[in-house]
Inverse folding.
């Protein structure tokens, strides 16, 4: 059992969980506001990774000796790419279907997802093959005695935490956040209060997409291999994490993501075949016991 | 009268040119997808071989070889589709391909059922040629590669504790790892961990943490280059200081691009080394470099060899009939780039393997091992 439950495996699980958490936040925000499961969300994650890759190679020469600044620019680029494409997807694909049956939006989301994956595969500059992601920052291993932690793991966890705290402040403390909460509670009432619903929704997509983009950069740095289909699996897992925590609930998404990351790591260490299935097993159990998720409350404000 | 006979002769010549149809041969490889560099190399190797035969006048004196190349994307379902397409739509007389065992295992039964001889360039899984008597291959098989890897780890590297990590969903990586384990145990070594990972995984730390708890001297990684790169990096991150050994799936320039320094001082078994001084090797390396601007990897070499073995068999069969080509393949005894090839009763080639070391991001020829 020592090799399965130990400090190192906890570190491994937290790292996986942070990436899931950033993706899950976008899923849960969008669901909270428009009640749409945005299946293209995993692809915003992928676009973030590709944007980071492109910007790094285009501008690396200008930032010699300034790795920290370069990393910051790359982070902004990946967030911008994820956010802007998410915004475009909303304006072009989801907005026209806003008051149509829910199923139309859901299928459109799958369509947007496939479009992004295959369009990038077909672009000669991207292509369907694996690309190796550069080491944007030097890798340093820190030995903690009974666990080794890489600076990349710390960066993953810190960036995930900072963005999550920022998002919570935005929602709790700003006018825009208040508007988001209002829209999530009751669209019609919010509109009567003079809130521009479409603006709020667009902003939600922008933020959610940019978080997925940041996650893409972190995943690319941590697992230095990118491909247009890289968003499918993490997207699915993050969606499960969001449902697990209670879809529409922000702390829930984060909690769900870390539970998933840790459970998957422990289960994979025990047996790889179980590791893949554990996410779905947890989902089934939680939905049976608490259909609204761990932190989701039936009548609470969804976001 | 003279003029008339000249016209007649010309007409006859023209007719014979028209009737000397091209011989259509199928080529299959994963030009896109998880093993894309393998596919591109495979295509290059087959095309180069066909070009050389055509420069010498083609087959049967006057019939050119025409390669119809299809991309299987490294996907078994896609593989089955392109094999069917080549056989039923293009009416090819033989097929050269494909690369990944799991895809070849999907295509081979189709070729066998249609009576179309095929030779896989690099599918090392044992089951491939067991599909039937029309199925051949140009590479050695998993037991041999796993055995050579284990011998090398135990005898040359002096390892006594080994661990293996492989893709559970892939017959090739699993076959290699199993044969490595069996041989390593037979030599008196200890296998402290034998772990699978799911297909498409990017995080291997859970499995690696468990593996490294057993303190192995050597890690056997039978995956393809893009997974090996990630695994090596994560193993080093977790503090693994020992050596890594693998199979021919490592043979790609992308191994170093993804794995970086982590794959340095790693070893893998392979089919050929560009540094081999045999004239046929040096001649091939020179021609390939001139045409494609890169040194041929083992995939390109084996595809080139597979194509030559197939064309040689068609030539000796003297016909494009499937059963005649199959019978000619059986009696192959040909000197190709990867060695002198004959076939055993299971249609596997009998030939040597080389060990290649990764040094400062480059492949260095270490030694040749005979069967």
């Amino acid at each position: 059992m020592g090799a399965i439950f130990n400090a190192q495996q906890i570190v491994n699980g937290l790292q996986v969980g942070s990436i899931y958490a950033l993706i899950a936040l976008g899923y849960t925000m969008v669901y909270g506001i428009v009640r749409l499961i945005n299946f293209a969300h995993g692809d915003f994650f992928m676009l973030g990774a590709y944007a980071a890759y492109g910007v790094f190679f285009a501008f690396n020469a200008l930032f010699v000796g300034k790795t920290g600044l370069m990393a910051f620019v790359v982070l902004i680029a990946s967030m911008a790419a994820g956010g802007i494409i998410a915004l475009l997807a909303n304006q072009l694909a989801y907005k026209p279907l806003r008051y149509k049956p829910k199923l139309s939006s859901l299928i459109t989301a799958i369509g947007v997802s496939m479009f992004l994956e295959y369009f990038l595969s077909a672009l000669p500059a991207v292509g369907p093959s694996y690309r190796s992601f550069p080491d944007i920052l030097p890798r340093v291993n820190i030995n903690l005695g009974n666990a080794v932690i890489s600076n990349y793991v710390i960066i993953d966890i810190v960036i995930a935490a900072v963005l999550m705290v920022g998002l919570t402040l935005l929602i709790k403390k700003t006018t825009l956040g208040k508007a988001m909460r209002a829209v999530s509670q009751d669209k019609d009432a919010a509109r009567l209060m003079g809130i521009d619903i479409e603006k709020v929704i667009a902003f939600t997509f922008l933020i959610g997409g940019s978080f997925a983009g940041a996650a893409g950069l972190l995943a690319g740095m941590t697992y230095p291999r990118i491909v247009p289909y890289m968003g499918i699996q993490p997207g699915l897992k993050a969606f499960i994490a969001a449902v697990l925590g209670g879809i529409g609930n922000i702390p829930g998404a984060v909690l769900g993501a870390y539970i998933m990351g840790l459970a998957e790591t422990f289960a994979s260490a025990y047996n790889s075949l179980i590791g893949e299935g554990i996410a779905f097993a947890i989902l089934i159990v939680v939905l049976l016991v608490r259909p609204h998720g761990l932190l989701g409350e039936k009548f609470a404000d969804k976001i | 009268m003279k003029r008339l006979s000249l016209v007649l002769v010309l007409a006859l010549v023209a007719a014979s040119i028209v009737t000397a149809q091209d011989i259509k041969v199928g080529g299959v490889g994963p030009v896109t997808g998880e093993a894309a560099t393998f596919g591109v190399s495979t295509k290059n190797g087959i095309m180069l071989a066909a070009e050389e035969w055509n420069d010498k006048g083609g087959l049967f004196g006057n019939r050119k070889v025409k390669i119809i190349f299809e991309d299987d994307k490294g996907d078994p379902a896609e593989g089955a589709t392109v094999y069917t397409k080549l056989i039923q739509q293009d009416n090819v007389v033989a097929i050269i391909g494909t690369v990944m065992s799991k895809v070849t295992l999907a295509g081979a039964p189709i070729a066998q059922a249609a009576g179309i001889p095929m030779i896989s360039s690099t599918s090392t899984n044992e089951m491939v040629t067991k599909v039937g008597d029309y199925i051949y291959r140009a590479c050695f098989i998993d037991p041999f590669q796993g055995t050579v890897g284990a011998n090398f780890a135990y005898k040359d590297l002096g390892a006594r504790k080994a661990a293996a990590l492989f893709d559970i969903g892939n017959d090739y990586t699993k076959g290699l790892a199993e044969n490595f384990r069996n041989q390593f145990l037979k030599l008196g070594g200890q296998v402290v961990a034998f772990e699978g990972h799911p297909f498409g995984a990017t995080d291997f730390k859970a499995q690696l943490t468990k593996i490294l708890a057993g303190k192995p001297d050597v890690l056997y990684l039978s995956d393809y280059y893009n997974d090996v790169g990630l695994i090596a990096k994560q193993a080093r991150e977790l503090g693994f200081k020992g050596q890594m050994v693998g199979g021919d799936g490592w043979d790609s320039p992308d191994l170093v691009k993804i794995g970086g320094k982590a794959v340095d001082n790693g070893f893998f078994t392979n089919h050929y080394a560009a540094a081999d001084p045999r004239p046929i090797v040096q001649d091939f390396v020179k021609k390939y470099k001139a045409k494609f601007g890169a040194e041929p990897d083992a995939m390109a070499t084996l595809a080139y060899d597979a194509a030559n073995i197939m064309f040689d068999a068609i030539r000796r069969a003297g016909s494009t009939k499937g059963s005649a080509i199959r019978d000619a393949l059986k009696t192959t005894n040909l000197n190709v780039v990867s060695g002198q090839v004959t076939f055993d009763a299971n249609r596997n080639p009998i030939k040597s393997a080389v060990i290649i070391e990764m040094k400062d991001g480059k492949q260095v020829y270490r030694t040749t091992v005979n069967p």
